[in-house]
Amino acid sequence: MSDILLKIDAVSKRFTRKPGVVAAAIDRVTGKDSTVTVHAVSNVSLEVERGEVLGIVGESGCGKSTLGRIVSGIYAPTEGEVLLNGDIVAKEVHGAVQKQTTRVQMIHQDPFASLNPRMKVGEIIAEGPRIHGLIPAKEVNDRVGALLEKVGLERAYANRLPHQFSGGQRQRVAIARALAMSPELLVLDEAVASLDVSIQAQVLNLFIDLRKDLGLTALFISHDLSVVRHVCDRVAIMYLGRLVELAPASDLYEKPLHPYTSALFDSVPKLGVGKRSFAAIQGEIPSPINPPSGCAFHPRCPFAGPRCKVEIPTIAKAGTGRSVACHIHNGGTGAEASVPVFTEAAA
Amino acid sequence: MTAALEVRGLTTQFETRGGVVTAVNNVSFKVEPGKVLGLVGESGSGKSVTGFSIMGLIDNPGRVTAGEIFVHGVDMRKLSATEQRQMRGRDIAMVFQDPMMTLNPVLRIGDQMAMAVRVHEKTTKRAAWDRARAALEIVGIPSAGERLWAYPHQLSGGMRQRVAIATALLHQPAVILADEPTTALDVSIQGQILAEVRRLADETNTAIVWVTHDLAVISSFADDIAVMYAGRIVETGTAEEVIANPRHPYTRGLIESVPSLHQAGEKLPQIPGATPQLSKLPQGCPFRPRCNVANQACLGEPPAHDLSGRRVVCHRPLEAAA
Q1: Contact between A272 and B213 using a beta-carbon 8 Å cutoff
Q2: How far apart are CA B272 and CA A199, in angstroms?
Q3: Considering only CA atoms, which of B19, B87, B102, B15 is closest in space to residue B56?
Q4: Residue A152 lies in a domain
Q5: What is the pLDDT of residue A17?
Q6: Residue B8: what pLDDT?
Q7: pLDDT by residue (tens digit) across A217-265?
Q8: Helix-, strand-, coil-residue percentages of chain A, each rounded to 5
Q9: Contact B273, B288 (CB under 8 A)
Q10: Distance, CA of B69 to chain centre
Q11: Confidence at residue A337, expressed as pLDDT on a 0 to 100 scale
């Protein structure tokens, strides 16, 4: 049996904005309800094996960062649960989120915002283990030094402040801080998005090395398809809070099944293929406050049929280790004449 | 044919407490009408400052200290401030990275676009609104007439950027400078805008300078590429040649560090170190400490080589691939 480390079970997260005093009074008189609800994540289930790197890809507003925060225990899910080794990661107690474990650590996008500018790098790295009593006080310096070396920085840098480092170096510090807690799972939320290409390659290489050395399990959240293909074993594609496709990275890039996935691949500029037309996806990303009926992608989908407008597709198996949430691959849409043939989907 | 934009020996310096910093160092390039030039570089390479210098948007403590900027054969730097202002927006326009900073949040789209029309032309407000609507239609905004009544916050990021591009197009300028205009946008929206811009260049004969850090974006729609490093242009050539056959070690390093060209999971060839601070540039070639082919000769100022339509500033340019 495979060794499942992380189990995301039917997780949903809704954010609601209650009406203010005036709006509530008007609501009472008119009988309307002006509460605004954002369905950030809707019914997502995923499993991550120990030692696996799962990529989560989507455009802004697709819920990928919210999912990352739920897994890290920053948010508690509205429905469903997140289990690490069978234990709940975070729960809501009297309206406040209580994190139940330090075994999940997160690395954020912007290393200029995620490091306290007034703390020395050594203190930043040691803070977590010190507070949680993971290492004896007299071993702290050794541990910090070892971590700095592990991420490719010098031991002496422990006495410097974050502003003395470049963006790439700061991101290394953020990685060292996460590793200091000896986490079982790392959540990287757009961890290389703010770095220059040459620096991005350095940080990706560091991640590949660390993964080999430490057998890291990670959730790698990114909008950059080429980066994800490079470091991930499996990839989950999200659209407007829902999981639309899940597949091993190599299969997915060879043959995307969901129309959104393939449109996304087509709109990514690729190096060295010469001039080409873009505009693979028409239209805008809809608002998660008021998502379209049925399949959320149907207003932009060239293959959408009548069924897509009314029924939300459920995610279903589509070949070995793959699944997809699309009526084309799951019973038809009522507009088959215009549907391209996906041979593998029949399996 | 006169180039739509020709820049010769442009140098921009900033006076800082640590001394004079040369952000743009002797930069020269030209763009023909209807062509797209990609100005590529990492943060701190001077690519944005080059754009600001051309537009005359450098403020104290910065100063354009040398160079000529020809727009349709007219040297912008020889003009008075008033004449320069008359050219900005009419003959040369700029699109910035963040459209929320470009657009006035308290004015309707139509009002601010009409204002841009009427700054340069005596026309009725109604005619100006018509022009604005036509410009919005050109950049692919659906129901443009209604959008004119909207405020910027009612539009999505992609729509706002289209409005910014449409505003730049109002007077059909000879040149549009675009500073990372799609960096803040999602890939699917970026694809739509790239397609529109390419079509505009082809159809309206506008020359476009597209400033970006993203080689993949530029390789897919630019005609020519100029690569900047530490304030200098280190390599120029047609997009196909520069990407397929880089001759400067930095260009090659940049191209090789793009993950999509490699086997998944394999380590990427990386350029060691970080981009140098402009106040502490190394002696000789600024790329020398990070370069894997550098030798003693690189301690001197790098010479420019003209190689069949290409230009490479390097002591030891790479051999052309067979």
Answers
A1: no
A2: 8
A3: B87
A4: no
A5: 81
A6: 95
A7: 999 999 888 899 999 999 999 999 999 999 999 999 999 999 999 988 8
A8: 35, 25, 40
A9: no
A10: 15
A11: 42
Report the pLDDT averaged over residues A101-115. Answer: 90
Task: Give chain A positions within 8 Å (CB) of B278.
Answer: none
Give the CATH number of the domain where residue A26 resides.
3.40.50.300
Enclosing domain of residue A61:
4-103+183-282
Q: Tell me how far CA of residue A151 lies from CA of A76, A148, A209, in angstroms.
A: 31, 5, 9
Full DSSP string of B210-242: EEES-HHHHHHH-SEEEEEETTEEEEEEEHHHH
Domains contained in chain A, number: 1
Neighboring chain B residues of A168 at a CB cutoff of 8 Å:
274
CB within 8 Å of chain B, chain A residues 167-206: 167-169, 196-202, 204-205
Query: How many angstroms separate the first and last alpha carbons of chain A?
Result: 24
pLDDT averaged over chain A? 87
Whether A189 is in a domain gets the answer: yes
Residue A79 clears pLDDT 90, i.e. is over it: yes
Return d(Cα B92, Cα B171) in angstroms, integer.
9
The band of A278, judged by pLDDT with boundaries at 50, 70 and 90, is: low
pLDDT tens, residue by residue, B112-158: 999 999 999 999 999 999 999 999 988 888 888 899 999 999 888 88
- Please identify among residues 100-119 of chain B the ones whose CB lies closer than 8 Å to any CB of chain A: none
DSSP state of B88: B
Question: Is the minimum CB–CB distance between B143 and chain A shorter than 8 Å?
Answer: no
- The position carrying tokens 């001759």 is B247
CA R_g for chain A: 22
The answer to whether residue A293 sits within a structural domain is: no
Residue A135 lies in a domain: no
